[in-house]
UniProtKB/TrEMBL annotation:
It is an enzyme of class 1 (oxidoreductase). Catalyzes the reduction of sulfite to sulfide, a step in the biosynthesis of sulfur-containing amino acids and cofactors. This is assimilatory sulfite reductase (ferredoxin). Residues 100-163, 348-413 form the Nitrite/Sulfite reductase ferredoxin-like domain. PROSITE patterns: NIR_SIR. It comes from the Bacteria. GO terms for molecular function: 4 iron, 4 sulfur cluster binding; heme binding; metal ion binding; sulfite reductase (ferredoxin) activity.
Length: 550
């Protein structure tokens, strides 16, 4: 197969420069420096689709090549899931193949979080027929299935693609789903609607070999909402709605945000981008990442490391001089949001006088049957449009005033709350040990029972609060930017036994006063103690807080 660096690209390659030892293609380092880079060089991840369709789906799991199984299948949204019954203590000890189940997690990308009721019905059908009813809403607006067998993948693709959905580059070292404001084009307070830019980036670049071999994943967010509802601070690239004093509504450009190892809040380049130029600027930044990004160590490969080394001024200069070949327009920073909740839960008026209705499942967990029922409700009460949010919530759009009450009642009958407690609203959980091979502890079930306990114990608590549970030291549920971040690990209980528990991080936030939570030294709680601990913490906060303290 052709090696990736030599593939034709619309963007000119940089010439070989001085040796900088990080595997940057722009410095002439085309020799792969680790196994992942070798796999990508051997064959583009996108090419695995043909093998899935023509070989693996017919011959079954055992026929799958190892580099495809643990590498390239991600380019089509497929990861092997964790074999049931392996406890968290074994996660770091076992070889990857010992943890692999013969079933897959499959991620469906939902760019901008936009779904029609027709699409949601197909998502529900696929869940029921091929995924044992599983369908989680992720914190990047995607839908995630479990229990997928390789034999069924071509048929699942056929059904999803027939309604305009796909799993293309839903995982892997690629441009992942483009997060968008879930109320784009309808919110009364909107600065600018970024939908056309999301669609154009998708049309030009998703599934294109121009960007199918990046040093690592590349996360994008676009929102023209003053609520700042796309966690723009922690994306590799973000376009945030602003009004330019001379040019009007457009986007402020941010780069280099990300959690996991060395979490970083993205930095502003001080540039204002008009709507129609967003796709070109996006391609320029993605090209810098592809060409100058670090490819030696996976843990230093995200764009944030390059941005941290270069600083915003040099990054903007390279973008302008080498990729856009024109200067960007200077522009203002976004204004501070006025509210802490950014999830659009509740009933809100739209620009056109209709309403949108945001509701909260528990920690993003729904199922195929529920999704079909949601589609039926949205069709009966709205125009057939829905969105997912980055807080694992959903919104029904375009509801006339006379339909609101009946829709709210229908959702609440499915335990999908439109007026949830702060605990239901603000608790998120990653996949955890149920399916994730990297997990050490359980998360979804525990998040759900924590909500019940806190609602029972603190019925009067009415402050916005975010409680995020991760099953391991990674950051899939954004623990570093939660009021209470819970990082899964094994801890000692009072009897000296190793049990599931959490390292506690406190005081993180996005939006108003963004920053990372502090790891409270030595503060670890066992899973059994978790409700008591959170109750004590929140009760004390209520008793002792000063005015305006969060
Ligand atoms: Fe898996 Fe860890 Fe991510 Fe949770 S945070 S989904 S356990 S990798």
């Amino acid at each position: 197969m052709a090696a990736t660096p030599e593939r034709a690209s619309a963007t000119p390659r940089r010439k070989a420069g001085r040796h900088r030892g990080e595997g940057q293609w722009a410095a002439g380092h085309f020799t792969p420096l680790n196994g992942n880079e070798q796999t990508k060089k051997d064959d583009d991840g996108l090419n695995v689709r043909t093998r899935i369709e023509t070989i693996y789906a017919h011959r079954g799991f055992d026929s799958i090549d190892g580099a495809d199984l643990r590498g390239r299948m991600r380019w089509w949204g497929l990861y092997t899931q964790r074999k049931p019954g392996i406890d968290g203590g074994k996660t770091a000890i076992l070889e990857p193949e010992e943890l692999d189940d013969e079933y897959f997690m499959m991620r469906v990308r939902v760019d901008g979080g936009r779904l029609t009721t027709e699409q949601l019905r197909v998502v529900g059908e696929v869940s029921e027929e091929f995924a044992r009813g599983t369908a989680d809403i992720t914190d990047r607006q995607n839908i995630q299935y479990h229990w997928i067998q390789v034999e069924d993948v071509p048929e699942i693709w056929r059904r999803l693609e027939a309604v305009g959905l796909s799993t293309t580059e839903a995982c892997g070292d690629t441009p992942r789903v483009i997060i968008g404001s879930p109320v784009a084009g309808i919110a009364e307070d909107e600065i600018i609607d970024g939908t056309s830019a999301i669609d154009e980036i998708h049309r030009r670049y998703i599934g294109s070999k121009e960007f199918s071999n990046l040093p690592r994943k590349f996360k994008t967010a676009v929102s023209g909402s003053p609520v700042l509802d796309v966690v723009h601070e922690i994306n590799d690239i973000a376009f945030v709605g602003v009004r330019h004093p001379e040019h009007g509504p457009g986007f402020d450009l941010w780069v280099g945000g990300g959690l996991s190892t060395n979490p970083k809040i993205g930095v502003r380049l001080g540039a204002w981008v008009p709507l129609e130029e967003v796709p070109d600027v996006w391609a320029g930044v993605a090209s810098i990442f592809r060409d100058y990004g670090y490819r030696r160590l996976r843990t230093r490969a995200r764009l944030k490391f390059l941005v941290a080394d270069w600083g915003p001024a040099k990054f903007r200069q390279v973008l302008e001089d080498e990729y856009l070949r024109r200067p960007l327009i200077d522009g203002p920073a976004p204004e501070q949001p006025v509210q802490r909740w950014r999830d659009h839960v509740g009933v809100h008026r739209q620009q056109d006088g209709r309403y949108y209705v945001g509701f909260a499942p528990r920690v993003g967990r729904v199922d195929g049957t529920t999704l079909t029922k949601i589609a039926n409700l949205a069709e009966a009460h709205g125009s057939g449009r829905l969105t997912t949010t980055v807080e694992q919530k959903m919104i029904v759009l375009d509801v006339t005033e006379d339909q609101v009450e009946s829709l709210v009642a229908g959702l609440e009958a499915l335990d999908l709350q439109v007026k949830p407690s702060p605990f239901r609203r603000g608790t998120m959980a990653c996949t955890g040990i149920e399916f994730c091979k990297l997990a050490i502890v359980e998360t979804k079930g525990r998040g759900s029972s924590l909500i019940d306990e806190l609602e029972r114990r603190l019925p009067e608590f009415d402050e916005p609060i975010t409680i995020n549970l991760n099953g391991c030291p990674n950051a899939c549920a954004r623990i570093q930017v939660a009021d209470i971040g819970l990082k899964g690990q094994l801890v000692m209980d009072d009897n000296g036994r190793q049990v599931e528990g959490y390292q506690v991080h406190l005081g993180g936030a996005l939006g108003l006063e963004p920053g990372f939570g502090r790891k409270v030294r030595g503060l670890k709680v066992t899973a059994a103690e978790l409700p008591d601990y959170v109750e004590r913490l929140l009760s004390r906060f209520q008793e002792e807080r000063e005015d305006g303290e969060r």
